[in-house]
Specification:
With 178 residues, the protein is mainly alpha-helical. It contains 12 helices and no strands. Helix 3 packs across helix 6 and helix 8 packs parallel to helix 11.
Length: 178
């Protein structure tokens, strides 16, 4: 079985030369997602590092398992991987059936929603993504515990804490947030 550092190296190689929507090396995105999952253990860190590898590279689930990625990590990766012909909203509903996949997608959503990232998009694209990610949070957040969401958001995108407080009607400070 691969270690977290070996999985990080695999993700770096798999995403080599790729850039995200704002032109940054793609591996920065998967590492930010993984960082938000660090409090939940190595399996979720690995899943965060690999969450887009099947979707955005030539790697397959079978190749990941053969390379030594734990089977449960690959299951989580596949749970958050877009499937041809499946609408985004349906994919989000499918993800919420798996508590660990839900946490990975919450971290992914939080990073994709980060103001530093969205501010670099053209206005029309920024509005489309903002709406898409906000709607996804409407399905993802009820599928996870508030402390878990807050843990991820504090690491990946603290600007979402106000939305989380508004959604739940409590202050993260008053509620003894981490």
């Amino acid at each position: 079985m691969l270690s977290v550092s070996e999985v990080d190296f695999l993700a770096e190689r798999a995403h080599a030369g790729q850039v995200d929507k704002i032109g940054r090396p793609y591996v920065e995105h998967v590492r930010a997602v993984a960082a938000g999952l660090a409090p939940f253990g190595d399996e979720l860190v690995m899943a965060g590092l690999l969450h887009d590898v099947v979707e955005d590279t030539d790697w397959t689930a079978e190749q990941l398992v053969s390379a030594g990625v734990p089977a449960r990590v690959v299951e989580i990766v596949m749970a958050v991987t877009k499937q041809p012909g499946v609408a985004y909203e349906e994919m989000i509903r499918r993800i919420t059936a798996d508590p660990q996949a839900t946490l990975v997608k919450i971290a992914d959503n939080a990073h994709n929603s980060h103001p530093d990232r969205s501010s670099e998009l053209p206005a029309q694209k920024r509005e489309r993504f903002t709406t898409k990610y906000r709607n996804a949070r409407g399905a993802l957040w009820p599928a996870a515990s508030r402390p878990d969401i807050e843990t991820i958001v504090r690491i990946v995108n603290p600007s979402l804490l106000a939305e989380l407080d508004a959604e739940h009607g409590t202050s993260s400070v008053a509620a003894g947030g981490r």
